[in-house]
What does this fold into?
Amino acid sequence: MANTLVRSHQLDQLTGAQKAAILCMVLGSESASMITQKLGQEEVEQISFEIARMDRVSADATDAVLAEWIEVMMAADSIAAGGMEYAREVLERAFGPQKAKAILNRIATQISETAGLHRLRNADPQQLGNMLRGEHPQTVALILAHLEPHHTASVLKELDPQFGAEVVLRMARMEKVSPDMLVLIERSILTETDLAPAHLTTSGGPAVVAEVLNLVTPSLEKAIMRGVEERDPALCEQIRNLMFVFEDVVSLDERSLQRLLREIDVKELALALKSASNEVKNKIMGAMSQRASGALKEEMEMLGPSRKRDVEAAQTAIVAMIRKLEDAGEIVVGGGADDLVV
It folds into this structure.
């Protein structure tokens, strides 16, 4: 049922999602879409839900949310420019000591929410993998879900695939975790080795798992996904739909494929195609000039027998390049003619 925010004293009870919803409503659809593109699917769904619930927003509520947004943005910019003390000086001049303190406390709280597991970022994957082997899968899942995808993928390579499948399953099912819990886990598992701070993601979920599995070798990805499918077929399918594997190169349109080929060394491409299907080979060679296609065939013939891990490494590197170009908006992955805007 839709509701109306009428009284200003209700502002203290607004959640972050409700404030974000009001901000999006005030800014309009175009600006709101630019904001939501930077958010995760779960966050976008929460904000959309709150927008759907609000039929009207009082002027007091709108003004207060906008004022808070401006304050937080000013604080964040000041911290980035010169640290907390500089931010304090700027905010005190703008709003006075009491208001500045409240704003900085709010910012400090947000920063602390990503403080858990802060010493794991630069841990050697092999060392971290050895450390985690005796832990419960849920503990390992929580840790890996809060590291960078490349780091998580490297650690997964150090784990038994069956155990890795259990970890990935729990990562995909994971929701938000309190920062206090992250700190407790960090204290319970770390040795006396001092590890560098970590940059954390906010949660697990199928999208995080898909991103990580795109960075591991095809054989490890298949082993892990097989284990996930045995336990939860529906979740496995959800993860698979979010993934892009090397064989999916056939789904790229010709323009995207040609853009990709400009970034790939012919030797790496030849190695990656050693175990590829004829469909993939024909798709790639069909996007190349006759001369380039001939050079690629010669390179493949010159390679001779190749180790499986080298072929998989080349395929993984190409998939990583596809993701990089997609993130930069230079190629289109998936979709068809109906998805194009003319």
In short: Residues 1-9, 112-116, 191-202, 335-342 have pLDDT under 50 and may be disordered. DSSP finds 18 helices and two strands in the chain.
